[in-house]
Amino acid sequence: MSEPYVDAILKFLSNREYQPLSQQQVARQLGVAEADYGSFRNTVKRLRDAGRVVLGVRNALMLPEMGSTVSGVFRANPRGFGFVVPETPNRHGDLFIPPEAQGGALTGDHVIARVSKRGKRGGEMVYRGEIVRIARRGESRFVGTLACSDGTWFVVPDGTAMTTPIVVRDIGSAGPRANDKVVVEIVEYPKPGALPTGVIVETLGAGGATEVETLAVIRAHGLEDTFSEAALADARAAVDAFDATRAAGRKDLTGETVITIDPPDARDFDDAISLSRDGGGGVTLGVHIADVSHFVPAGGALDAEAMRRSTSVYFARRVIPMLPEILSNGVCSLQENVRRFCKSVFIRYDAAGKVVGSRAAETVIASAKRLTYRQAQAICDGEKSGCGKKVVRLVRDLAALARRIEKRRRAAGMLHLELPAVELVFDDANRVVDAVPEDASYTHTMIEMFMVEANEAVARLLDRRKRAFLRRIHPAPDPAAGKDLSAFIRACGRKIPRDLSRKDLQQLLESVRGRPEEYAVNLAVLRTFQAAEYSPGAIGHFALASDCYCHFTSPIRRYPDLTVHRLIAEHCRGTLDDRPPEDISALTQLGTDCTAAARRAEAAENELRDVLVLELLAQKVGEGFEGVITGVANFGIFVQSPRYLVDGLIRMPDLGDDWWEVDARRGLVRGEHTGRRFHIGDRLAVRIAGVDKARRQLNLVPDRTADAPKGARGKPRKGPKKGPKKPKKDRKRKPKNRKKR
């Protein structure tokens, strides 16, 4: 179905936060222009005729129910289960596939699954599926480690998408060696009882080296790490044509005190900050963002490649930029004392930190000082910095404003999760040797607050102009997930309403701040959240308590920001009304692609981090640590190392001789005979039993020499009271409580 609006309508109706709306209301939410409503109505009719959309109560548009079979793409989860993403969206979303029902399917395979009902949860029917046929294989190339046994060469694939070795032949004497990382392409998929066969198409180098493992992750996730000649030619032409002195039509801010605050190893400085005082105690915050749209016009080879990449990817020792470095680290980077073009947002605040007005402009700036977060924090703390008085005063005034903004946003319902983060420490040979907590200076929060304010101001501006644009949306938690969170929190011994509001979540997070159970509760809240995504749908951002939000502040590394910059350019030049209406379906698809690219980048970054940590922990087999239980499953419990933030698995047989009952909703595993309990958030002493680098798995066992698992509040979990139970006939029956009449 190629009509416009198809993708936009189906994606909008698929959102978990969607409340039944009429055809006219859906059109309004999607920003359909009045002149285009006829085309929108025809598309809805065709979707109804095809059974892809149905009418509900009061003629509300709805997706159909889950059918008896589902066709779609299989996505495996590292914890064993998976989902089928339906080709035709339904009211219930993706179909859950347990580990034993996957029929040999791999991530990316197009499959057909039989659907069965599992009962109701939170008033909604729950389904599970069984893959009955693999219609088309989705992946043919895999990355793994080359090995040899009894004269047979094979590749052990990395990860869990392919779990069987791939046999390779014709390994010549000059070819790859055992333990090399290679890319293998399957030429024959396995029949029952046999192994797949393939050919090696690329040798990456000796496994274990950080550079090689990084390249392996890049290949495994299909990331582009080189630019085409056409894209590089566009970038060079943009650099050659740039003249910072030719700034006609731009507001000249080179005489103002503007600073950048970034990590110490940053090279792409894409945001700068200024502040000016107004009469009556108010201030105007200036957020100045590198004007990437000036160098990357829509429609060229460079734009096409940036759109396809959609995001930069940040590894521990390497960055894969969205744009060539002559742009991202060159003319687009807001370097100290260098004239640079920006898109600027000016936000006026009263003395209480409330927004009283905002505007956007095309500007030229010259950063007065490049600061790191720690340097800026030292200024806030009153330490000597070697910076001029203007910079010192600016930083302290910015920190004061950020606290007022943060207070206002928290009062509006903004949620902030306290979850640990670490930085890996490398030695001179580029190997991971340790991990240290990330810098927690308040200046990180300060810059975050300013970026959030700028993103929101730009989204509101475009919304007022009635333009369709890529928003950053974060739907409210699914009601069933909220009920599960309530059950989990009550199991932790805390009282909490069954139906959670944003204020309830704030109070919950505040009540555990600084307490032993803080991590467990924050992790549980995080798991109730839906993932944020890019979409033109008029849906707000739940965690930020914003009803209108987009990404504007990082066009060097995020393509959605670049699309917003182009709209702001036309707004500033007075040509936005002359721009044709956006193709909503095309914009929806772009949002879907950008969301997928961002998640792929995050998955790649996390995988490499885990690989490098596992390389280190492989040398520590037998050593112990006190971890935190982060998950329970029918095959074991997951325990996280607080030092390295990597999860390990304790399999059920290693928990001890008992019949273990799993209550996933409450995050609990309980021994039927011993009464021993393991609860998410409990601290547990464990030992490293082994490391499976190929499967990205850390294997743990309980440390039998340590104490019993400690509850989230630090108290040991108690088993059943000792002593024989009384026979039933000897037990006293409690008299029934009868009401007097």
Overview in brief:
The protein is an alpha+beta fold. α1 (6-14) packs across α15 (584-617), α5 packs across α6 (301-309) and α9 (389-412) crosses α10 (442-464). The protein is globular.
Can you describe this structure?
The protein is α+β, with helices and mostly antiparallel strands and 741 residues long. Helix content is 28%, strand content 27%. The protein has 16 helices and 33 strands. The strands form ten sheets. It has a five-stranded antiparallel beta sheet with strand order 5-4-3-6-7, with no helix packed on it. A hairpin with a 2-residue loop joins strand 8 and strand 9. Helix 1 crosses helix 15 (584-617), helix 4 runs antiparallel to helix 15 and helix 5 crosses helix 6 (301-309). The N and C termini lie far apart (70 Å). 38% of the residues are buried.
